[in-house]
Structure formats: C-alpha cells, structure tokens
Amino acid sequence: MQGEETVVVTHEGGTYEQDHESEPGMARHGEDSGDDYDDDGESGEEVGDYGPIRGKAAKPGRPDALRPTKIDDAAGAEAVAPSVGPKPSQKCLETQGSEPEISPRRKAGEEAEHAAGASESQDRQSKQDLPSVDEDVEALLDEILDEAEKSKKVIMGQINKEEIPLKPHERRIGQYILGKTIGEGTFGKVKIGMHILTKARVAVKILEKSKIVDVADVERVSREIHILKIVQHPQVVQLYEIIETPKKLYLVMEYASGGELFDYIVKHQRVQEKEACKFFQQLLGGIEYVSRLNIVHRDLKPENLLLDFDKGIKIVDFGLSNTYKTGELLKTACGSPCYAAPEMIAGKKYNGTNVDIWSCGVILFALICGYLPFEDPNTSNLYKKILSADFQTPNYVSDEAKDLFHCILNTDPEKRYTIEQIRAHAWFNLVPCEANFKGIQVGVDPVPIDHTILDQMDQEYSIDKGYARKCIQANKHNQVTASYYLLLKELIKKGEKSPADVRRPDYDPKRFIHSAKSIRRERAKEIMRDKLENASMQLDADGDDQVEEEDES
C-alpha cells in the first residue's frame, strides 16, 4: 500500500511506534471555537454529534472518562492522556468532574493532523471496493428522472421563492429554516432546522468550504458523505439532502430528539440489563449492516450514539470511518483510546469489524456498569490495561453479562466473539430481539415505498408521485426524497402503520422486489432498443454509401 509511514507517538511514561495506512489524519472531538454564539447571534447548545462537525467542549459537570482524547496518528504529534475521573471501583458517571481545556500539545497535534496522509488520497481512492448502483441501472434511472423532470406538476424551486416570515435568529436555505446551533467543530456548525413543507425537524450540518483546503480534509469529508449516501438502516442516521452554495455545503440529516446515549447513562447512573440489552441489540444490528457494506466506523462510543423519539439507537459521526476491500486489513490508529481495540493500539494491522466489535463491548460495559472498563490518568498505563484486558466487573452484574464482557473484550482478534456468536449468547437474548432488519444495500435491494405518502405529496404539495417514486428508487438526495422520508418518519412517530416501516415485525421486503425487477427489465428493453436503432442507422448509412458509389461510377 502506498504512503505508509512509521510515526513515533510520545505518551506519558513511554514511547510507541505506530504504522499507518494511507488515510488522512483523524478528526478531533470536543473542539471549541471559544465563542458561544454563531454568526446569526444565537447561543450554541450541544445535544448531539452529527459527524465531521464535532460537538463542543464537554458541558460543565460532565464525566471525563467517556470524553477521552483521540488517538493521535499525525506525524510528529504527541498524544495527550485522556482525562479520567475516580478509579473504576469508586466511579459513578454522575459524580465525575468536567473535562479540562484543550492543551497546547493537543492543539499542535490538531494542526499537524491536516498534513498527515495527504499524499495517499489518490492511491487510496483507486483501491476502494465500494458498493454502488449498477452503472447501467443508474444510467437508466438518470434518464427516467430527466424525462420525469419535464413533466412535473410543480417545479420545487418555485416553492423556494415564497416569502416565509423568519425570527431574528433564523435564516433560510432551500426548503429549510435554520435555527439554533446544536454542535460546532472543525469545518463549521450543526444547526437544528425545520422543513418548511412538512414542519419536521432536521439537523443541518454546515461545512465551510474555506476551511476544507487540505487534501486530507477533502478526502475525509468526501468519504463521509459517500458513506452517508449509501447507508439506509434504522440504526444509522439518514442523510436527506445535500445543498451546495459557492461558500458552503449543507448536509440535511435526520434529527434524533433523544440526545446522546452518554447523557442517558449519566442521568440514570447505569442502565438496567434488560434495557441495556435492547440498546445493544440495536447497536449490533447497525454495526452488522455497515460491516456488510465493507465499512468500518472506528469511533464508536456513547457520544456517537444518539437516541431517537422511541429510544432507538442512531449511529452518527462517520468522520473516522473508511471503506475497505473484502479481506483487507487496515493500519491507521484512530478514535478514542478508552474504546480502541488492543490490536489497533499495538500498531498491528486489524480487521475493521473486529475493532468495532471491541468498541461495542466497551459501550456495553459502560451501559451496565456506569463506568468504563479501561481507564488511567497515565496513557501508557491505560494502554497496558487494554492490551492485557485488565478490568474488574462489579458484583451487581449478572454472570451472563460478565461472560459476554470477556467474550467480546478478548485481546486475541481471532478468538474475539463474532457478530453471529454474540447473537447466539444467552445474555443477548435476555429480551426478544426486534432489531433484525438488515438494511438496504443500494442498487441491490428493493427500496420500500409507501404509496399513501406519495399520494399525499401529490395532493398537498403538487409533487408528481411518479417522479417522486423514481427519485426514491434511484436513491436521490433532493427536496422530493427529503419530503418523502420526513413524512414517513412523522407517520411512524404518530404510531400509524406503514408498509415502508422497516422496523415493523411484519415488514416484508418481498413486496417491493417487483420495483427493482421492473428497473432491470426496463433497462434491458432500453439496451435492446438502442442496439436495434444503431443497427438500423448503420444499414441506412451503408445504403447511402452504396448509392454514392453507383452515382460516381
């Protein structure tokens, strides 16, 4: 692999060498602009983290141990020891102190990370084995959409011209009114937004193009957007729409109103095992899905797990994620030290799914016990504990949960439990598993469509339902598909049934297969039609040439 390098990372108490794969430097969590007000004058408040836009510095009184510093893999940068509260035996999440300010050493590491990995982006991109829509099918869908565009009843852009009264702290972009800032980070801010047509809430990530200048940053943002566009799963945050202006990029995303799982643990001190089992089932379902798409998250922690209106887990922040070929091993050490797998810390090549499973084990421990299994104020000692799986389990934890801890937090990746083994474990089946939906693989699986919602869009918003259906089938991220998915979520929130609700026990994907088959049949007819037309044109051309030759003779 091109662009490999060996970086010496200095920690308190020791120095370690780490090899890195050809990837851009990792992002930072908890970056604070030092200003509680954005350019619109509203106060910023953190309720969640939606990706490259990191959450602001920890709230006063928040526990330290679940807010560790990132593993630093930038050339010449020094890693900072994670902030840690009381020892595990004395620790309760609710009683920990607040996070210290970012040190000058960490700031220096953040500046250095932008330079790391810039030379390999082109080579890395060429090696990706990414799931994508079949080129022929995608070309057909584009043609269908172009034709449907001409016959739409109302051009959505006309709606954008309507005058909407705004409050002093609000402004408008496309079909959305932007409100308060709910997150802030390296490339811009995350604001809460309201969709004008449906009145539904969304999270709008605003990326400042002027801040995305280095090759590594461009690669990182592009990769995350690509991943968000190809994932469709109930436990993964959904990207609705992308709006681009000369200076900014707006990513309109699903809004999870329940906040972070981290805050939920803090509020309850620890989670009862039956409820923890439901959370863990959902988390594992999401990780199993992204693993099927050859995607590794690499930054799983309670801060990056949001709760929806029904306490459903939403995995967010794919800023450190990557795609890989089947069987390919990765090298880059990134993420938060307390949640990082031992093989990653040791600088070894690792399997993407295996390191995500380890992080899930740490999260499960935090859910049930109320504190992290591995922590130490000295980073060197912290790494030693992780490498030896040195942790103690409280007496109030059940024997089944203790056994699962040791099966997942196994330092040998080959012996660590797989997703299938975890699903078969007795504790995992403590409550009936409802998170069995495997997600949609774009271009392969049929997309479920609720035609009642299409009728509603046609009648209330004058959006041609045929055009809307084709946009959904083509996995477009535009105003039409955003309106559809927001209406679908509002329908589900009201408790009403929908055939497109993939979380329902009676959901049947087979009923939507005919849509995918019809696309392939239509494409086959189109190819045959083109061949016949080309053959006819060739015969006409040959006949004309023959006539010209006879005239000349």
Describe the structure.
By secondary structure, this protein is an alpha+beta fold. The chain has helices spanning 104-113, 121-126, 135-150, 156-160, 215-230, 261-268, 273-292, 342-345, 352-369, 379-387, 399-408, 419-424, 451-461, 465-473, 479-493, 513-552, and strands spanning 5-11, 14-20, 171-173, 176-184, 188-195, 201-208, 239-244, 248-254, 295-296, 305-307, 313-315, 322-323. Helix 3 (135-150) packs across helix 16 (513-552). The longest helix has 40 residues, at 513-552. The protein is globular and about 80 Å long.
Number of DSSP-assigned strands: 12
* Tally of helical segments: 16
Oligomeric state of the chains? single chain
Classify the beta-strand content into a percent band. Answer: 5-15%
For the report, how would you describe the main beta sheet? Answer: 6 strands, antiparallel
Encode the helix/strand succession as letters.
EEHHHHEEEEHEEHHEEEEHHHHHHHHH
Task: Set down the secondary structure blueprint.
Layout: E1 5-11, E2 14-20, H1 104-113, H2 121-126, H3 135-150, H4 156-160, E3 171-173, E4 176-184, E5 188-195, E6 201-208, H5 215-230, E7 239-244, E8 248-254, H6 261-268, H7 273-292, E9 295-296, E10 305-307, E11 313-315, E12 322-323, H8 342-345, H9 352-369, H10 379-387, H11 399-408, H12 419-424, H13 451-461, H14 465-473, H15 479-493, H16 513-552
Antiparallel strand pairs: 1-2, 3-4, 4-5, 5-6, 6-8, 7-8, 9-12, 10-11
Helix pairs in contact: 3-14, 3-16, 7-9, 13-14
Summed up:
The chain has 553 residues and is an alpha+beta fold.
Keywords:
disordered N terminus; six-stranded antiparallel beta sheet; 37% helix; 12 strands; 553 residues; two-stranded antiparallel ribbon; alpha+beta; 12% strand
